[in-house]
Write a sequence for this structure.
């Protein structure tokens, strides 16, 4: 599972006063959620980045 565990109190304390823009902190926030929930991060679950990764391209399948 996740490499570092994070308690709910630690998560809340860290993110309560976050003043960074969403684009600057979204990936770190997601990784902390993974640690809080004790689930693999994208790099742990899918080292190749083929199916579980940040900022993967999207393809339109229909109109």
């Amino acid at each position: 599972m996740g490499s570092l565990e994070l308690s709910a109190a630690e998560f809340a304390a860290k993110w309560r006063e976050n003043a960074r823009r969403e684009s600057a902190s979204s990936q770190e926030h997601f990784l902390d959620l993974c640690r809080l929930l004790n689930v693999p991060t994208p790099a742990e679950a899918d080292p190749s980045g083929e199916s579980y990764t940040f900022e993967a391209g999207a393809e339109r399948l229909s109109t």
Remarks:
- The helical segments are 8-16, 22-37, 42-45.
- The chain has a mean pLDDT of 90.
- Residues 8-45 form one domain.
- The radius of gyration is 14 Å.
